[in-house]
Specification:
- The complex is a heterodimer of chains A (196) and B (266).
- Chain A has ten helices and no strands.
- With 196 residues, chain A is an all-alpha fold.
- Chain A has two domains: 106 residues, RNA polymerase sigma factor, region 2, helix turn helix motif (Rna Polymerase Sigma Factor, Chain: A, Orthogonal Bundle); 89 residues, Orthogonal Bundle (Arc Repressor Mutant, subunit A), CATH 1.10.10.10.
- Chain A is elongated.
- The N and C termini of chain A lie far apart (58 Å).
- The radius of gyration of chain B is 23 Å and the shape is elongated.
- The chains are: A mainly alpha (196), B alpha+beta (266).
């Protein structure tokens, strides 16, 4: 299918049961879907699973999708919800296992932690993941996936005018987490490190 | 949000995001197509709950397995002598004159004892990655069966059913606890005609052919798992793959056809 085929045409065809058209939608959006899931889940296999599931749900939900609307924010909303649900479920599973003495306390996937590389980057990632889900989502969408505010609004289901305040609120909470848990990331700490 | 108004935390985010080392994005299309092709689970959430329950029970099963499984397995294997890892075959004796053969369970449709799910649902339950044979298209049904906390996967195709199972402990180098085909003290007046030793990708395998046979699972303590006995009318290839997964390929077809399917599995 040609790269220039309009996305609205693809969505329209997919709604009519055209598997090839949906295949093309998957191809075009799989990277952003996978990355959005990965940022939350911090595990490549789990991210692949959630991203696939999100596409399946999107396909099955095409009947309720408003034609003419952009596909990406709608998809990312599904991805985001599934990823956060998975984090919550994994937390509950882990909690129960810990209660019965079968699992070590929560740790992030070591391999992916190592993959991040760079202590600062890894700590920023840790700090963002310590935030409430809504804050985490809005920061990932804006800074990591570099979505415009209008699209972020569509993903989180809020009016475009509220995105800036959401970002500010999330940033403020991130600052508090950094102050409390990662003081080495504060600007003063950089200067101290540079002076040494 | 202008650059000038950025707080330090936003600068940190921008810096951390730049060149963020994401894993390579996998091509999701085949997996999405596959998931769309298999039947939907009833709702999106129950499999998560089943996954939660299975996780707890399975961990308990591992602890038990570590202590007794090897001994139980060895005892069964010594008695039978005909086995691949995780599965044994026994030729039952014919009954003495005037003695009625042991009644075996009537063949039952898969739906009566297995739970339909999706590949996604199965993956959430299983402690191993489910494998699909290459070149066979999508299964018409995906099922799981839980035996004493261990989940077995069944992929149902038109001409064959592929059973996959693996003990959690197998990944830790502990022997598998699931054993099939053993009916102590039983007799039969109709049985498989042949059990042939063969190989799948160089690994030991058995081809059971020519008539119905009987299967049940044995728990880590060496006792049969209640409700696991069933009669299999299709010819069957059994082996353990290099991945550590045990397979039972129950097929309406020849050994060559079974091997062609089996060799695509890890």
């Amino acid at each position: 299918m040609h790269e220039s085929t309009d996305e609205r045409e693809l969505v329209h065809s997919a709604r009519g049961g055209d598997g090839q058209a949906f295949d093309e939608l998957v191809r075009r959006h799989q990277q952003v879907a996978f990355r959005a899931a990965y940022l939350v889940l911090r595990d490549a296999q789990a991210a692949e699973d959630v991203a696939q599931d999100a596409f399946v749900r999107a396909y099955r939900g095409l009947g309720g999708f408003r034609e003419g609307e952009p596909f990406r924010p709608w998809l990312l909303r599904i991805v985001s919800n599934l990823a956060l649900n998975e984090v919550r479920s994994a937390g509950r599973r882990r909690g129960l296992l810990e209660r019965f003495g079968f699992a070590a306390p929560s740790t992030e996937p070591a391999a992916d932690r190592a993959l991040v590389g760079g202590e600062t980057r890894a700590e920023v990632w840790d700090a963002v993941n310590a935030l409430p889900p809504d804050d985490r989502t809005v920061l990932y969408l804006r800074f990591f996936l570099e979505l415009p505010e209008k699209e972020i609004a569509a993903v989180i289901g809020k009016a475009p005018g509220t995105v800036k305040s959401r970002l500010n609120r999330a940033s403020g909470r991130l600052r508090a987490v950094i102050d409390a848990r990662y003081p080495g990331l504060r600007p003063g700490a950089w200067q101290e490190a540079a002076d040494e | 949000m202008s650059e000038g108004s950025m707080g330090f935390e936003q600068e940190l985010l921008t810096s951390a995001a730049e060149g963020f080392p994401y894993p390579e994005t996998p091509d999701l299309r085949a997996g999405v197509r596959l998931r769309l092709a298999v039947p939907q689970a009833g709702t999106g959430q129950p499999w998560l709950r089943r996954g939660l329950a299975a996780a707890i029970v399975a961990v308990v099963a591992v602890l038990i397995t570590v202590s007794v499984s090897r001994e139980a397995r060895d005892a069964v294997a010594d008695f039978l002598g005909l086995a691949v890892e995780g599965e044994q075959v026994r030729i039952l004796p014919t009954p003495a004159p005037g003695v009625t053969a042991t009644p075996f369970p009537s063949p039952q449709p898969l739906e009566t004892y297995a739970t339909p799910t999706t590949l996604l649902g199965a993956r959430s339950l299983l402690e191993f990655e489910p494998r699909l044979p290459a070149g066979q298209g999508e299964p018409r049904g995906v099922y799981t069966i839980q035996y004493i906390g261990v989940n077995v996967l069944v992929l149902d195709y038109e001409r064959f059913a592929l059973w996959e199972f693996r003990d959690l402990a197998a990944e830790k180098g502990v022997v598998d606890k699931s054993v099939g085909g053993v009916f102590d003290g039983a007799t039969a007046d109709k049985m498989v005609e042949r059990v042939d030793a063969t190989t799948v990708s160089g690994r030991p395998a058995y081809w059971i052919s020519g008539g119905p046979h009987f299967v049940r699972f044995i728990g880590p303590d060496g006792t049969p798992v209640a409700g696991s006995a069933r009669t299999v009318e299709r010819d069957t290839l059994i082996w353990r793959g290099a991945s550590g997964t045990n397979y039972r390929l129950e097929i309406e077809g020849t050994l060559d056809e079974a091997l062609a399917i089996a060799t695509t599995l890890p």
